[in-house]
Specification:
- The chain is mainly α.
- The chain has one domain.
- It is 95% helix and 0% strand.
- The N terminus is likely disordered.
């Protein structure tokens, strides 16, 4: 944008007419001073406008940055809380699991002891029955031997009697 574009149209026409009527170098200097002042004023206004835009963009950027920082902080806090809650739930689950395992082990130990007691009792009863059977077999054997001895005596006595009758 040239300096002539920064000067208003009516001011430009009045300056041209003044220059054409008087070819005075002083007027030419005034014209350039006017153009310089006008262009400086326009540049200052443009710079001020850019300053305002920069300030607006900075405040928008700062607001977005603050919002994102807050969201990040909230997300980090939520993740930490979720992690803590997960650890608490995991610890509770592990305690419950340990309690169940302990009770199951105790139940298994109790059942094992009961079954071992049954096995021991059955073995003792088996030994007792075997001992009784040995005693009975021994008594039966003794009784059988006594009966055989009596039968031999009786047979011998009948034989003797029969021979006494025969004779």
């Amino acid at each position: 944008m040239g300096p002539a574009a920064l000067v208003s149209v009516p001011a430009m026409h009045s300056l041209r007419s003044a220059l054409s009527q008087q070819q005075n170098s002083g007027l030419l200097v005034l014209f350039f001073v006017y153009l310089f002042c006008s262009s400086t004023n326009m540049v200052n206004r443009h710079v001020c406008s850019l300053d305002v835009q920069v300030q607006q963009m900075k405040s928008t950027w700062d607001a977005k940055e603050q919002r994102l920082t807050d969201e990040r902080d909230k997300a980090v806090a939520a993740a930490a809380a979720a992690g803590a809650k997960l650890r608490d739930v995991d610890d509770a689950f592990r305690r419950q699991l340990d309690t169940m395992e302990t009770s199951h082990r105790a139940a298994i130990a109790e059942l094992t002891a009961a079954k071992q007691a049954e096995v021991d009792s059955a073995q003792r009863r088996t030994v007792e029955v075997e001992d009784e059977m040995r005693v009975l077999l021994h008594e039966t054997d003794v009784t059988k031997q006594n009966m055989e001895a009596r039968i031999r005596k009786l047979t011998s006595a009948f034989s003797d009697l029969q021979q006494d009758f025969i004779r």
